[in-house]
């Protein structure tokens, strides 16, 4: 495993994290095996949200922690709040009550990291700052970040909080790559030049904010995974041939494509099976050449300007 030192987080964070969005489908025993394998691979970062599995993902993870209390101190536990049933809510009251519920579900005394899950159009940054201060002073959240936010939204929140935003969790992979397309196509009139994220990649790099990539293997909600998907034949042929070249799995090549970026992004793996997690973790044993990185980028039909 490869790790990154992030100012404000005591332990070095693993470059691959285990995403817990889909674990509600597992039994406690199956999740226990998955977490054990994750830890044995050196994965120390676990990403939750209050809404995953309607709360059940945190609950079942809490059961696993109860059975293995010695694991807690090895882990960096992150959860998120702000998505409610049909609306977003980043009010002070909701942020605080969501964290309290997550702690109860996870059967732990503190979160290492809390992320604001999505921008709430009605968010008041001063209230968010107050919520962060209260959670930090009570010792129940140690560090903060956001997800799916623009540079402007992050600046606004940061203006009202003394706690640095350490992370922005964003959708990113070789198929869903708007974050880098806009930079590559800068100054052109192609659709790829459209900056959907307000220059979020450069902003995060300039401000030492680590990007966490979600859905590393998904093309889109409708298509599902791009692995072995007929719409991505050229990509899959290349993932396979590069897998043979580097002696790792195709999913490791896809993950290595993310890790190769010098921004030092974390990849959040959402697999629920130990075998698939082992294959993804092989990504940290290789470094893609520049030529191979660009070949993958172009394999989904892009041309360089
Ligand atoms: N901030 C946000 O807005 C946001 C949104 C979505 C997700 N997330 C976070 O990101 C994490 C990852 O998202 P995700 O679950 O969509 O990620 P993902 O890793 O792209 O997808 C995992 C899914 O792909 C399947 N899959 C198919 N073939 C696979 C293979 N060869 N290797 C591995 N998996 C394969 C997995 O099945 P198996 O389980 O059978 O392996 C699993 O159902 C989530 O758990 C959550 O923590 C955040």
Task: Give a brief outline of the structure.
The protein has 305 residues and is an alpha/beta fold. The protein has helices at residues 28-40, 56-67, 92-106, 125-137, 151-159, 178-184, 200-206, 233-246, 250-259, 274-281, 290-298, and strands at residues 3-4, 13-14, 16-19, 45-47, 76-81, 83-84, 87-88, 111-116, 141-147, 165-171, 210-214, 218-220, 224-225, 266-269.
Mean pLDDT: 97
**Which radius of gyration do the C-alpha atoms yield?**
19 Å
Into which percent range does the helicity of residues fall?
Answer: 25-40%
Q: What is the number of strand segments?
A: 14
The fraction of residues in strands falls at 15-25%
Count of domains: 1
Major sheet details: 8 strands, parallel, barrel
Low confidence ranges? none
Describe this structure in words.
The chain has helices spanning 28-40, 56-67, 92-106, 125-137, 151-159, 178-184, 200-206, 233-246, 250-259, 274-281, 290-298; strands at 3-4, 13-14, 16-19, 45-47, 76-81, 83-84, 87-88, 111-116, 141-147, 165-171, 210-214, 218-220, 224-225, 266-269. The chain is of the alpha/beta class and 305 residues long. The protein has one domain: TIM Barrel (Alpha-Beta Barrel). The strands form four sheets. It has an eight-stranded parallel beta barrel with strand order 3-4-5-8-9-10-11-14, surrounded by five helices. Strand 3 (16-19), helix 1 (28-40) and strand 4 form a beta-alpha-beta unit. Helix 3 (92-106) packs parallel to helix 4 (125-137) and helix 9 (250-259) crosses helix 10 (274-281). The radius of gyration is 19 Å and the shape is globular. The model has no long low-confidence stretch (mean pLDDT 97).
């Amino acid at each position: 495993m490869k790790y990154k030192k992030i100012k404000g987080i005591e332990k070095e964070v693993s470059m691959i994290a285990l995403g817990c969005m889909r674990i509600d489908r597992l039994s406690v025993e199956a999740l226990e095996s998955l977490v054990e394998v994750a830890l044995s691979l050196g994965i120390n970062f676990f990403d939750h949200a209050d809404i995953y599995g309607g709360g059940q993902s945190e609950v079942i993870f809490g059961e696993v922690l109860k059975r293995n209390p010695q694991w807690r101190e090895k882990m960096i536990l992150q959860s998120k709040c702000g998505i409610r049933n049909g609306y977003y809510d980043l009010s002070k009251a909701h942020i605080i009550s969501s964290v309290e519920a997550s702690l109860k579900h996870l059967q732990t005394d503190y979160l290492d990291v809390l992320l604001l899950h999505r921008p709430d159009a009605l968010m008041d940054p001063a209230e968010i700052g107050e919520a962060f201060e209260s959670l930090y002073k009570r010792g129940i959240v140690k560090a903060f970040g956001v997800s799916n936010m623009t540079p402007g939204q992050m600046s606004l929140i940061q203006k009202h909080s003394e706690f640095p935003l350490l992370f922005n969790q964003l959708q990113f992979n070789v198929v869903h790559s708007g974050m880098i397309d806009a930079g590559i196509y800068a100054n052109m009139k192609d659709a790829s030049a459209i900056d959907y994220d307000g220059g979020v990649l450069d902003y995060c790099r300039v401000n030492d904010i680590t990007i966490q990539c979600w859905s590393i293997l998904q093309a889109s909600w409708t298509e599902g995974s791009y692995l072995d998907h007929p719409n991505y034949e050229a990509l899959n042929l290349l993932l396979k041939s590069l897998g043979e070249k580097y002696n790792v799995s195709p999913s490791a090549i896809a993950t290595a494509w993310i890790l190769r970026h010098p921004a030092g992004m974390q990849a959040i793996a959402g697999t629920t099976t130990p075998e698939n997690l082992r294959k993804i973790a092989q990504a940290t044993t290789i470094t893609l050449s520049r030529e191979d990185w660009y070949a993958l980028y172009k394999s989904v039909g892009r041309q360089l300007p």
